[in-house]
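Quarterly update, task 2.4: beta-D-galactopyranose-bound model.
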Amino acid sequence: MRKNALRTAAAIGALTLGIGLTGCATGSTGGDSDGDTAAEDITVGVAMPTETSERWIADGEAVKSQLEEAGYEVDLQFANDDIPRQQQQLDQMITNGADILIVASIDGTALAAQLANAADKGIPIIAYDRLINGTEDVDFYVTFDNYAVGEQQAQSLLRGLGFLDENNEDTGQTDPKTIEVFAGSPDDNNTKFFYQGAIDTLQPFLDDGRLTIPSGQIDMDTVSTLRWDQATAQKRMEDLLTSTYDGGAKPLDGVLSPYDGISRGIITALENAGYGSTLEAGLPVLSGQDAEIASVKMINDGVQYATIFKDTRKLAAQAVEAATAYAEGEEPEANDTETYDNGVKVVPSFLLESDIVVADNIASLLIDSGYWTEEEVAAGVAQ
Ligand code: GAL
C-alpha cells in the first residue's frame, strides 16, 4: 500500500498499513528503536508560522524532536509570518513526499489550495494550535482551550487590579480602575476565542462600573493586532496615550494583552510615556500569553504582571500522538467534537489546559517543570 494513503486507511478504519506495525499504543513516543514501527519511512511535514517568537521556535523544536524520537522523518519549516512563503513550503513538503502534515497557519483561511492538493494525495492534515478555516481538508486539531485562555488573561488582569483573589473570587474591592484592551491577529481563529473569554470575564466589572475603558475602544476589529506584531501594538498604545491619556499624564491602571510580544510593545509605549518601569513604580497591570522567556524575566522583575503558560511540549506530544494514530491507520482521539467549526465542518479537536503565571509561581510552573531554567529566567534569553 502506498504509505501516503494514510487518510484513506484511517477513514476505513484499517488496522494496519502493512508497513511493519508493532501494535504499540499511540503515544508521543509511540515508536520503538528497532526501526520496525508505524513511523518507519513516514515523513511528517511540520509548518510553523514564524521564528520571530520564542513560542513558535519552542513548538517547532518540541514537535521535531518528539517525532524523531518516535522514528519519523521530519521536514520542519518556519514561514517568517509570510503567507505566500507558508503556501510554498506546504507545496514543497507535498512534492517532497510528506505523508502527514502538521500545520500552524499564519492566516487560517489562506491554505485551502495547498490542503486540497494534500487531501487528494491522501495526506492527513493536523491543525496545530490554530484552526485552519474554510476547508474540508483539515482532519484533526490539537490546541489549548482557547476560550479558557482568554478567561485566564482577564482573571490575571483582575487579580493584578485587586478585584479577584487567587481563587478568582471577587474581593469586593470597589475602588474603580481604568483599562484598555488589545486583541490578537484578526486572521487567527484563536483571536476571537481569547477575546470572547476575556471580555465575558471583564463584563460584570464593566457593567457595575468598577472597570472603565476610557478610549471606548472595545470592538474586536478595532482593538486587534495584525500578525500579533509587537511594533503594531506599541503604536496603538502610543496612539491611545495621545488621544485619551494626555500623552501619559492621566492614570491608566491596566491593559488586557493577549500575547507576550504584544505586552512587550505596550510596556515600551507605557515606559516611554513615563508610567514607570515597574509595577511598583506605577506601570499598569498587564496580562500576556505564552510564557516567552523575555516576558517571564519581566514578570520576575515586577514589570509585566502575568502571562498564560501553554506547555508547548504537551501540545507537541498531542500532535505526535495524532500523527501516530494516522500512521497506524486509526483516527486520533478527540476530547472536543463541538467547539471548533471552521465554516465547513466541525473539526475533531484535542484541547489542553493552560495556567496563569505570576511572579510567585514562576518557580513551580516553569522552572520545576524544566520549561525554563533559573538562569534563563534571570537572563531573559533561551539558552
Ligand atoms: C496564537 C497562539 C498564541 C500566541 C499567538 C501569537 O495563535 O495560540 O499562543 O502564540 O498565536 O503567536
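Highlight for this quarter: The chain has a mean pLDDT of 92.
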